[in-house]
Structures are given as C-alpha cells and as structure tokens.
Amino acid sequence: MDFLGKLILAPLAGITDTTYRLLCRENGADVVLTEMASAKGLLMQPERTRRFLEYREEERPIGAQIFGASPEEIGEAAAAVSAMGFDFVDINMGCPVRKVTGGGAGAALLSNPGLAGRIVAAAVRYAGIPVTAKIRSGFGTEPATYIEVAGAVFESGAAAITLHPRTRGQMFSGDADWSHIAVLKREFPGRVIIGNGDVRLPEDAARMISETGCDAVMVGRASLGNPWVFRAMRSRLPVPAGPADLPSPGVPSASVRRALILRHGEEMHRRKGDAGIREMRKHLAWYSRGIPGAAAFRGEIVSVSTLETFRAAVERFF
Ligand SMILES: Cc1cc2nc3c(=O)[nH]c(=O)nc-3n(C[C@H](O)[C@H](O)[C@H](O)COP(=O)(O)O)c2cc1C
C-alpha cells in the first residue's frame, strides 16, 4: 500500500459513507477510509456493523477503520475486514467521545502505549493486509504521548501512522499543532507519517508537507460541501500525483456543482430511500456555504424529505 504523496479523505463518522467517498475519489482524493466501526460490533452484530463498511470497487484503494480495546477482538475484526476485500485496516486511536474512550478504545489508547502496540500486533498478525493507526497528540491529562505510542505502533508492524495533532482534551477546539507532525517525522525518518488537521485551503496540503516533511496529507472537514478541494490541493503539490485525466482545478461551475449535488442525493436515495434524503440536509447546508442566500436556504432545507423535494430545492438554489 503506497501512501507517498497521497491526498487521503479522513474518516468522518456519519458522513464519509460509500456515496460521499466515491465523489471525493472522483475529485482527486487518492485514498479513502470508512468511518469507524466497532471491532466488538463486527464480531457480535455483524449485519448491523457491516452497514458502516459498505464500499464499491471504484473507491479503491480503501481502508476500513476499526476501534476497540482488546487485541483479540481487533485481531478477529481485522481478519474480517480483510476477508471483505479492504486494501488496508486502520486502527482508531484518536476518537475522543466518552462512549469509545470509556471502554478503553480510541483516544484512551494514547495513555496506554503498551496496549496500543499489542492491538496493532494482533491486527498485523491476523489481517494479512497493511495495518495503519490514526492517533492524536495525547490524551491531554499527561504530557503528550504520541512519540511513545508511535514507537510502540511502528514496532508492532504498522505500515503508517496518521497524526491529528490535538489532544483528546481539545476535542476539535484550538489549532492543530503541526510541529508534532514534524517531530514524528524526525523521530521516525524512514516511516510513513500522514499529517492531518486543519488542512483547509487549497495551498494548505502543500504547506503541511513542506513545513512538516510528512509523506501524505489527510483532509476531513475541508471537503464538506467541497469535494473538489482535493483537485485544488493536488494541483499545488510539488509533484502532482494521481490520475492524469482530472480536468484542471478551480472553482467548479454552477452546472458542475449542481450535477454533483443531484447525483449525491440520487445515490443516497437509491441506497437508503427517504432516510438518505434526510441525511442530505446536512450536505445541502455544507454545499450552500458561501453562496448568496445560503442562510435563508438552510431554513428551507428542513422540508426536504423526498427525492422530488430534494431535486426541486437543488434546481432552485444551486
Ligand atoms: C464529524 C466528525 C466525525 C469524525 N469521525 C472520525 C472517525 O470515525 N474516525 C476517526 O479516526 N476520526 C474521525 N474524525 C476526526 C477526523 O478524521 C480528523 O482527524 C479531524 O477532523 C481533523 O482533520 P480536519 O481538520 O481535516 O477535519 C471525525 C471528525 C469529525 C468532525
């Protein structure tokens, strides 16, 4: 699995489903990941949990992200996602929400480098595909632990580490401290380090690479309502990688924007019926950002509940 120079779509729970990921892939994201899925859930309630792991061939390369606090469960879950055909498996070591950390998983692993290492070792042993980990700078109640955690994780055979340089205690507030990414690259020079956090503007991906020396860049929130951001970022990378046939970047025309939004909603409706259309409300709010009249439009979105009302709203506003 080659991550070098790649732009990666971050896992965003409740957002980066198969439909969204494909739109980002088509617009310049080189690699995508599923949203996080519980290792325990995958073993105990496979039908329910597999919904989070639905993907299409066109999305490749794609990683499945799992979370858990037990090496045995992670090992079994890693084998299961490998059997589902994923290209790599990513272990979540950064999720700050109590439901996850309370059980010792997600960001709680930042306080327990030994367990983090054993979890990765179990995944490596049973997956048969590359294993990566996504970490934060630390839990926040003690000095940052990311160097120690990264050491344990690499020692256990991880192929790459993504660092989102905030502590668990920061949740999503304050600024991501990119200097931690540079430190990690210096500490582990031969290893693949993926930088993440506050990469917003088209020039930010190139800036993160030049400031930190990271090997690849992961982008989450900047893509919301703007999957085209990957094209814009790619065009500013020192060596623009990826499919050569991508049309030149720039602000998409109104018709390109409208066509993509319609496709997004139609595909959500095909997969999930009216529930998929209701999920589109948040995407419509994101797509409308920066367009005159967006505030009033957001007030109207609550009445979008069928494919017909969705289409009418898109035709009228975009
Ligand atoms: C709504 C939301 C959901 C998220 N879900 C996940 C997740 O499932 N797994 C994960 O590792 N990180 C998750 N994250 C963190 C992002 O992957 C990423 O690390 C963070 O947003 C910083 O990157 P950004 O500034 O490019 O958004 C989530 C973040 C947000 C805002």
Please render the helix and strand layout as text:
Elements: E1 7-9, H1 18-26, E2 32-33, E3 37-38, H2 39-44, H3 46-50, E4 62-67, H4 71-83, E5 88-93, H5 98-101, H6 113-127, E6 131-138, H7 146-155, E7 160-167, H8 179-187, E8 192-196, H9 204-212, E9 216-219, H10 229-235, H11 254-272, H12 274-287, H13 294-300, H14 307-317
Helix pairs in contact: 4-6, 6-7, 11-12, 11-14
The structure holds flavin mononucleotide.
Flavin mononucleotide binds next to loops.
> What integer is the average pLDDT?
95
What is the rounded Rg?
A: 19 Å
Number of domains: 2
Structural class: alpha/beta
CATH topology of the largest domain: the name is TIM Barrel
Distance between the termini: 39 Å
Low-confidence stretches: none
> How many strands, which pairing sense, and closed or not: the largest β-sheet?
9 strands, parallel
CATH superfamily of the largest domain: Aldolase class I
**Can you count the beta strands?**
9
Note the beta-strand portion: 5-15%
- Provide the list of bound ligands, each named once: flavin mononucleotide
Order of helices and strands: EHEEHHEHEHHEHEHEHEHHHHH
Shape: globular
Count of runs of 4 or more consecutive helical residues = 14
**Top-tier CATH class of the largest domain:** Alpha Beta
Helix content: 40-55%
